[in-house]
Amino acid sequence: MLVNKVLIKNGYIVDGTGEKMFSADVLIHNEKIVKIAKNIKTGYNKIINAKGLVVAPGFIDAHSHSDVQLLQNPNVREKVMQGVTTEIIGQDGIATAPLPKRYIKRWRKVLATIDGDSDKINWKFKDTKGYLKQIESLGLGQNESYLLPHGNVRIEAMGFKSKFASKKNLEKMKQIIKREMSNGAIGLSSGIIYTPCIYAKTQELIECCKVVSELNGVFVVHQRSEADDILTSVDEIIKIAREARVKVHFSHMKVSGLKNANKIDKVFEKFDAARKEGLQITFDQYPYYAASTVLSFILPPWVNEGGTSKLVERLKSNELRKKIILDINNGIRGWDNTVSVSGIENIYIASVVTNKNKDCVGKNLVEVGKIKNKPPLEATFDLLIEEENQVGMVEFYGNDDAVVKFMNRPEQCVCTDGLPVGQKPHPRLYGSYPKILGKYVRQCKNLSLESAISKMTSKPAKTFGFNNRGEIKLNNYADIVIFNKDTIIDKATYESPRRISKGIEYVFINGNMVVKKGKYTPNPAGKVLRHNI
């Protein structure tokens, strides 16, 4: 085997712990960090001069949607070029595995707008073990770790039924969770605004999370409300943490709608109380005040029942259209009404499937109405029918003040929540980490460099149980990013979202160089980080 001994010399070490930056050299031997000291003189066959640059642990993307992309292109260049060396997939309760053969065709339509789709993929991996083995065999460009999606568990146990789980259903779900965590999943994810997760009662989640807790996993959740009912929603998740004694991690934490900004401090009070109680609560956040998800999210929950075919059928009914518009205008208790919270003019089309509607991409729903010469909601319904519900959106929901408030919380980890689909994905897919380091650290001084790096590295490593990663430390895996703190910045915008960030000079994954002098060099350096039960 070729011996790889790389010396990173003259850099400023920000080790991921939150401690002050210091000057030192770092010696890598194959996969591991074997020495950290000043003026290392021997023991290397390659040298990187990092003078004036920051040497930090590789960034960990706490919330990613590369699940399907990895089955086609396992490199994920847009993440590596941000300094990301590990990402956590299987998010929001809707992902690739487990996937019984009889549900493949129907589930692919569910996945398409979030994670993507392709006929070129071998979809017969069946379970987490098969999925992880398949992406591993393709040669991963970075480390990947997988959460077991609650929606997949539910459809295996009880199909797509829009009902609460029976005792028999629940026992089956618990068996599946045990099986899939033994297959390598690090915890359970749910998106309890999405079908079929939305049908779960709190008690169902508690019982599922008891199994997760027994196996020392984490429960990662897109909660029921991020807007008007967020306080009740947070209470529900804290109740799950308390009764299941499970580690809870909130996905893409935010409070949507400027009218709800006064609830942010009340959310923090609940987090403080939970911590005093001894509960383990964390969350991830991307540094933007615009969200990205499926366009059908703007519809009342009942419209989504039964999946895409039923949704399209309802949208074709003139009578049901009237009811949908009435519900959007008046609201439904317990439903995050995106149109009401953010405004129809602040909802933009990010992706479509057909060429027919490509002129709608990048336009808000008012503009879509003008293109189709119809009222905005009617035009939106037509778009969803024509695209068979495979439409992505970006929604502007808040302001920068709220972003900074959440960013400074002790529970915060950084993520991209990057959806690698469509013509105009959210710029967070390409720019999240450099944006924090360039804008919020250097320009605005909202965070110290050391604090920001810890939220990108050691905090998520501890949250998700990654041993020997997340810090520049002896015997840790050499996941390392070297960047220029004076120039690093995001370049991706909503108009041009696929632009690579500036300032990342070198990236090492498991001791292998994958970015050299700012240029990406594809290398199957990544590993699957499986759960150790």
Give an account of the 3D structure.
The chain has 533 residues and is an alpha/beta fold. The protein folds into 2 domains: 59-289 and 397-463 and 476-490 and 499-515, Alpha-Beta Barrel (TIM Barrel); 293-395, no CATH class. It contains 18 helices and 21 strands. Strands 1, 2, 3, 4, 5, 18, 19, 20 and 21 form a 9-stranded mixed β-sheet that branches. Helix 10 (308-315) crosses helix 14 (376-386). The chain is globular. The mean pLDDT is 95.
Keywords:
533 residues; alpha/beta; 6-stranded parallel β-sheet; 18 helices
Summarize the structure.
The chain has 533 residues and is α/β, with parallel strands linked by helices.
The helix fraction, in percent, is: 25-40%
Task: Quickly count the domains.
Answer: 2
CATH architecture of the largest domain: Alpha-Beta Barrel
Please give the count of helices.
18
Radius of gyration: 23 Å
Which runs of at least 5 residues are low in confidence (pLDDT < 50)? none
Described by the principal axes of the CA atoms, the overall outline is: globular
The beta-strand count equals 21
Biggest beta sheet summary: 9 strands, mixed
* Overall mean pLDDT: 95
Indicate the structural class: alpha/beta
Q: What distance separates the N and C termini?
A: 31 Å
CATH fold call of the largest domain: TIM Barrel
Question: What do we call the CATH homologous superfamily of the largest domain?
Answer: Metal-dependent hydrolases
Strand content: 15-25%
CATH class of the largest domain reads Alpha Beta
